[in-house]
Design brief:
alpha/beta, binds manganese (II) ion, binds phosphoenolpyruvate
Length: about 350
């Protein structure tokens, strides 16, 4: 990987000339497994070796981690490979043990970020630490919970902060294990531009074949780094077997990923870019204009329905519109997912307008 952009804070101190890479197994299983993986990641672009010691498992009876014993293995990783180490902490006891055993970076898992009580307990336990602490997004797509987690740590005097985008759970079957909802990560970055943001393609995809693609998207969106689950025998991993890649695959990925610059000082590029942006601004204004017109028509329909005492929601008509628009969109190169999202939003706004007229 080549040069990226100016880095900040703890990330700045690492003086990397490429995005941060955190790699290692989902779980520490045995001392041999941990050291074998670590030695294969030694002398690569990997800065931090990860391994879960305490594992939050959705259902009981699954492998819940080796516990404090694994902290000795992480110490050995540091001694033998020079890599920094990291693990997940979920309560005050974990924090105490991890700090005592000199783990360099602690992350807070998605199942902890959802709970303000747990977040506060962690913030109190971590108060004043100079360790780096990363907060994974909560399992549900709630930006405020994620920001709140960071704020609690900040208030506790923790200076070296970062965030991990690991996707969001959904009841719908999708190709992802946790849908990325990239906009939410972008909103996070807008709110906290100085907090390094790392992408976790392993938990987003749940499948090793998709890890590269999601990593590339993250780099295209200027994420500061990647956390990628890596195991020498992924198929036989004790947790998250389907999503882990081998060290060999990871090393190849690091060569193949394209790092984009944030901008380019060249004048021709900049004037072409402003030209295209001006065109986008014109089209965006036209879209707003059209939406305004569309809602005026909806107001007219609302008035008519009111007069005749007809219900606002007409499902049959709505499904016809959706089907037609998906086909038309396809011809213009617009994805079905986008058309459905856009028209659902338009339909909702239209219903709100008609409701206002009918109730008014
Ligand atoms: C993990 O990183 O192994 C993990 C449990 O992640 P998450 O909190 O994102 O589920
Ligand atoms: Mn995992």
């Amino acid at each position: 990987m080549e040069n990226k952009k100016e880095m900040r804070t703890w990330l700045d101190d690492l003086k990397l000339d490429h995005p941060l890479v955190i790699a290692g197994p989902c779980s520490a299983e045995t001392e041999e497994q941990v050291l074998k993986i670590a030695h294969e990641l030694k002398d690569t672009d990997v800065s931090y070796f990860r391994a879960g010691i305490w594992k939050p498992r959705t259902r009981p009876g699954m492998f819940e981690g080796v516990g404090a014993l694994g902290l000795n293995w992480l110490k050995k990783v540091k001694e033998e490979t020079g890599m920094k180490t990291c693990t997940e902490v979920a309560n005050a006891a974990h924090v105490k043990l991890a700090i005592e055993n000199d783990v360099d970076l602690l992350w807070i898992g998605a199942r902890s970020t959802v709970s303000p009580f747990i977040m506060q307990e962690l913030a109190d336990a971590l108060a004043g630490t100079d360790k780096t602490v990363l907060v994974k997004n909560p399992v549900n797509p709630d930006l405020a919970l994620w920001l709140g987690g960071i704020e609690r740590l900040h208030k506790a005097g923790i200076k070296n902060l970062g965030a991990i985008h690991r996707g969001f759970s959904t009841y719908e079957k999708t190709k992802y294990r946790n849908i990325p909802e990239w906009q939410l990560a972008i909103d996070f970055k807008d709110r906290f531009p100085d907090i390094p943001l790392i992408n976790d393609p392993s938990h987003i995809t749940g499948k090793r074949d998709m890890v590269f693609d999601v990593s590339q998207t993250a780099l295209d969106l200027n994420f500061d780094g990647l956390m990628i689950e890596t195991h020498t025998d992924p198929d036989n991993a004790w947790s998250d077997a389907a999503q882990q890649v081998t060290p060999k695959t990871l090393i190849q990925m690091m060569l193949d990923l394209r790092i984009r610059k944030e901008s380019d000082p060249e004048e021709a590029y900049n004037s072409e870019l402003s030209n295209l942006r001006a065109q986008i601004d014109v089209v965006d204004n036209q879209i707003i204009d059209l939406m305004g017109k569309r809602m005026k028509v909806a107001d007219g329909i609302g008035a008519l329905k009111k007069e005749r005492n007809v219900a606002v929601l007409q499902s049959k008509r709505w499904n016809e519109i959706l089907g037609k628009m998906v086909l038309e969109g396809e011809q213009k190169g617009l994805s079905e997912e986008f058309i459905l999202k856009m028209f659902k939003a338009i339909h909702q706004e239209s219903i709100n307008h008609q409701e206002k007229i009918i109730k008014g």
